[in-house]
Amino acid sequence: MTESTEARPFRLAYVPGVTPAKWVRIWGERMPESPLELIAVDAADAAAALRGDRADAALLRLPIERDGLSMIPLYAEVPVVVVPKDHVFTAAEQITLADLADELVLDPLDTPLVWDQLPGRPALDRPASTGDAIALVAAGVGVVVVPQSLARLHHRKDLTYRPLDGAPESRVALSWVEDRTTNLVDEFIGIVRGRTANSSRGRNPHETPKSKTSKSTEPAPREKTQAAKPRTRDRRRAAGKSGSKPRTGGRRRR
């Protein structure tokens, strides 16, 4: 990287369900001269937003086409099954794939989950979005499996959810265009990775680092120098007394 950190917004795209609030707050503390601009994008549009230079980096869901993109996996989300509040599943703390055998399981087109085989009974049509699938569940049509963050995002008073054991997890990653790894991108990478503000790559470039040798260049305390002088005079006095000639008993010349 050869470019300097510019006083321009850092554009961060994020997909539904991902909450970058903590990282945005840290960015504001460390990079006040470069405000962070949040850009909400659909999950299917996140990679295109990077390649089209509509965002400098993106918090997105895997898998995606990685050609030309760098990424850092961040975390995996718990899969849950969304059901009406009066559903029999609400009596259990956790559901298994076998429990879905007799259920109509909706599979929205924008689902971030990659199934080897969708459990339960498949619907004739796939809902266009997770939001549409949630609305169908509220209308009493089937159930849907989503990452927990999406269940919270589409929360409704008449619906609830339970963790689903054995379902694929949704993985969230930070991604950016490899050829555009700017100083601002690197600064955000450092924040996401937990680098401190004083680390070599995470430090604000506008800050002046403290000298590591400041203590070694301080003069010695004055009280130590002053304490040594009386001891030197005492030694001289003692030497003078021991080396003086004794007086004789003869008459003093007049």
Automatic annotation (TrEMBL):
Residues 230-239 have a biased composition (Basic residues). One of its GO terms (cellular component) is protein-DNA complex. It holds the Pfam family LysR_substrate. InterPro entries: LysR_subst-bd. The keyword Transcription regulation applies. Residues 196-254 are annotated as: Disordered. One of its GO terms (molecular function) is DNA binding. Belongs to the LysR transcriptional regulatory family. This is LysR family transcriptional regulator. The lineage of its organism: Bacteria, Bacillati, Actinomycetota, Actinomycetes, Mycobacteriales.
